[in-house]
Amino acid sequence: MIGEENKGCKLIMPGMNAVRILIGAEALGLEAARLRVYQAARLYGQGYAGGDYANAAKYLAAEAAFKACERVVMTHGGMEYAKEYHVERYLRGFFIPRIALVSKKMILNYIGERVLGLPKSY
């Protein structure tokens, strides 16, 4: 895995539990978002007109992708933000779905009002 890719130091690092836990947590978040996107697409294909599944899918996917990129940058002490590693490009790219077209606050308002039945607060 990570230690095996680094052939330069000729050392396999079996004790990378902290990194494995962080990667595993982000992988679960991305997988959950992917499944929600598939569910929303399937329901839309079957004629479901409500926006709750699509909004939830967009919110979860945008948050999971941004959080994974942020975790990479923070795990490596900010060095991953250098242009040579391309993570900064992904971080910028994954920030756009959080604010573009429908912001996360608008999605949460929609879910609160339409799904949970809460009164309008605006």
Describe this protein with a few key phrases:
122 residues; 5 helices; mainly alpha
How does the SSE layout of this entry go?
Elements (H helix, E strand, L loop, with lengths): L1 H4 L11 H29 L6 H24 L11 H13 L4 H12 L7
Helix pairs in contact: 2-3, 3-4, 3-5
Could you give a quick summary of the protein structure above?
This protein is 67% helix and 0% strand.
Largest sheet: none
Q: Which class do the helix and strand fractions yield?
A: mainly alpha
- Compute the average pLDDT: 83
Distance between the termini: 49 Å
- SSE arrangement, N to C: HHHHH
Number of helices: 5
Low-confidence stretches: none
Radius of gyration: 18 Å
Helix content, binned percent: 55-70%
Structure description:
It contains five helices and no strands. The chain is an all-alpha fold and 122 residues long. The model has no long low-confidence stretch (mean pLDDT 83). The longest helix is centred in the first third of the chain and has 29 residues, at 17-45. α2 packs antiparallel against α3. The chain has helices at residues 2-5, 17-45, 52-75, 87-99, 104-115.
